[in-house]
Amino acid sequence: MTTTFTLNGKQVSVDADGNSPLLWVIRDTLDLKGTKFGCGKAACGACTIHVDGKAVRSCSYAVKFAAGKEVTTIEGLSTEENMHPVQQAWMEEIVPQCGYCQPGFMMATAAMLKEIPNPTDEDIDNNIVNVCRCATYYRMRKAIHRAAELQNATTK
Amino acid sequence: MSENKKEKKGFSRRKFLVRAAIGTGVMLGATYCSAPFIRRKIAGVVNTAESPYMGPTDDPTIWFEVTADNTLIFHSPKVEMGQGTFTGLAQIAAEELEVGIEQIKVVHASTATGNIDQFATGGSTSIASLWVPLREIAATMRVMLLNAAAGQMGVAVSSLSALNGIISGEGKSITYGEVVAKAEEWEVPDTPALKASTAYKFVGKPIPRVDLEDKVMGAPIFGMDATMPGMLYGAVVRPSSVGATFLGADTSEAEGMPGVVKIVLEEDFVGVIANSYVEAENAKKKIKANWSTEKVWQSEDIEAMIRVGQGKPAVIQKEGNAKQLLADGEEGVIISEYYSPIGAHAQLEPNGAVAYVEADKATVIMSTQVINITRGEIAKRMGFKEEQVVIQPTFLGGGFGRRLHTPNAMQAAVMSRAVGKPVKSFFNRKEEFQNDTFRPPTHNVMKGKLTADGKIEAIEHNVSSGDVFFGSPLVPRLLQTVVGTDVGAWRGGMIQYHGIPNYRAVSWRVKLPFATSWWRSLGLLANTFAIESFMDELAEKAGKDPVLFRLDHLTETKADLRLAKVIQRAAEEAGYHNEARDGRAMGFAASTDANTPCAHVAEVSIEDGDIKVHKVTCVMDPGMVINPDQVRAQCEGSIIMGMSAILHERMTVKDGSLYPVIYGAYKMALMRDAPKEINVVLLENDDKPGAVGEPPLGPIGAAIANAVYRLTGERRRRVPL
């Protein structure tokens, strides 16, 4: 079946089994590799993207549900002009080590900051539940607070 | 290597120019070292704990390319798996090349075009092993460029100097890129004198990671992201049972599944090739593979095997008379036993490969820690010479020792040959958890005896472990026989307090029915947990402060003094105290791993019955620090990964299979578990960089267990705590 949705601001149509995970459509059909496969069971968060602004674990999200919706991946988080505050903060704090899980964390963080512009440590603990094996959590927490600062500075 | 530096190196007809794409590049097989050479080198590792770089060092043109826009492309023989090696190596190279750090672009060397380490990337050796060779190569290259520029400019080389990739003198200047474009061949000069450390511009500075922007923007840099034109997807059936041997498979039902291109049934595995990953995985579920298993294993079976006293013992350390002093029936012997479970690597990027096998060559793009071994395995299976197999390594989505064994690359190659097209194949998560090369479980027995004035008279450490070093394709069988004990299993297992008059350490080898291998820091995690927990137990029995007690048993040797310094500094930095305050307590532990001493103070509380780590103070002396920011990052990551293993992680064997098979069920530290405060202090008490990526994993377990004891009076000796 053909599914049409908006990917990073551009309309795309894909011919795929409607039950195929959106992850593989994004990675293999549309060739955007920033969204990662970690577990395939929505347990690690490496595949986190935004669907209509909400964080979604795309390995367990059927492509048919994306029809008509706005899908954003790490490649579409920043604009041509401005790096997204989350990515800016990640750069400033030098967060990534191996880097594989980081797009998922940044997407989860960007979605959280829309709902909670000034997250407490407890908010971060409750909302950012992805897995990072290099255990970059310490810097990620700093970067999340910094991203909130940057975001609030640009929106004020 | 550096001992050859006085020899005239002759000419190189290679050029510092951008090389052909993979698969068509110049084969450099002839420059590789022979197997006996590797064996000697490994024996050297065992004897000295120093790991030399094992690859060619005589021709800088293999290491660097220079582009017209004056960018230097550095082909790294070590892979980047998060440890920051690319950045540290770029800093070291920039220093001697006299270029700006932003002028260096680091890429993974491919077997087709560059210098591959014969051994592996692992063991916290990358920076340390390349510290001398890379500076020599870079300095040699600078002189080559200066000499060529002098000829091209018609001036004396003595009048020229290099800065930021530009050679200037006598009012003229030329870029490295311009020199390279005009040069036809190069004379490789004697290795020049290296820069004095006082003149360093990049070494010792917190330069941002060279791969930072790619990783923040989500660039397709990992093995999982690789593609080739016309690529298909392969899925291999992997056993869920421990000790399973493949007997064959009924593939009839899978053949008709949507998207299936071909089923590959080999003697040792069965796989399906399809047009998409989802189709390949769906078809795989319909294959009925037959496995034979000798026994339906349970966790109790494994625990019964991993016992000190069973298996084959080897005395790894002996001083004085510890065995007699601590013998059964002797008075005053204190005994404690510790346990650690099977650990999974759980790296986020699954093992996989993209392989394309043509009539006379194979090309493989993948994440691997053992480029040369991967190449050898594929060559053997394909009936190719090694030179016919090109391995293009990529960034690794985590290594931790999981990518030291890569038979999956060979399987991808077999499937590619069967269809004549590139095939991408990777593990699903359940397969990763059940077919891991696990951290082996351990049983550690500590014995000790105190003198009347509260010093340790004798101490003994016995560790029973599954294989770590043995069984690894990294270690040739012959060498295993020569070495005789599993140095990986007893890493961190020696007594480091050399002021104790009588000490002894014994390693007991057990062969387990599932694959066990290197897991970040090897045996260090479990062995230091046992030894440093026991040191606190002895200190308490002796009525001594645990910090002073440790210092009391160190000598005036260089290694002991370095350890003493990190111990003292950690206690000062943390404001270490023995009594619990406001519901929190501190725990202390220290260890030296691969010549890098490290001490941790953990501050914990118990919340809803769970151990909560609030703050960790880490003092480490890696000798010389190339990039303080990345060394700190390794400390922070090691502390939390070590915490995760000590507090949460455990694989169990139930009815013949390993569980759990998914994140979440395999409990790991998450954001909520990470300490809110990590204070890293770096000391530099040596003149060369040492190990960084693993030493800070050592003391974290005992630091936490010691803190829990001080808070609750309960001594926890079984991991996960």
Write the layout of secondary structure elements.
The complex is a heterodimer of chains A (156) and B (721).
Chain A: E1 2-7, E2 10-15, H1 22-29, E3 48-51, E4 54-57, E5 70-72, H2 85-93, H3 102-115, H4 121-127, H5 137-155
Parallel strand pairs in A: 1-5
Antiparallel strand pairs in A: 1-2, 3-4, 3-5
Chain B: E1 10-12, H1 35-48, E2 64-66, E3 72-76, H2 85-97, E4 104-108, H3 126-153, E5 161-163, E6 166-169, E7 172-175, H4 176-182, E8 186-188, H5 212-217, E9 232-236, E10 245-250, H6 252-255, E11 260-265, E12 270-274, H7 277-284, E13 288-292, H8 299-305, E14 312-319, H9 322-325, E15 334-340, E16 352-357, E17 362-366, H10 371-382, E18 389-393, H11 407-419, E19 423-426, H12 429-434, E20 442-450, E21 456-466, H13 477-483, E22 502-510, H14 524-542, H15 546-552, H16 558-574, E23 585-593, E24 596-607, E25 610-620, H17 628-647, E26 652-654, E27 657-659, E28 677-682, H18 700-712
Parallel strand pairs in B: 3-4, 9-19, 17-18, 21-22, 25-28
Antiparallel strand pairs in B: 1-8, 2-3, 5-6, 6-7, 9-12, 10-13, 11-12, 14-22, 15-20, 16-17, 16-19, 20-21, 23-24, 24-25, 26-27
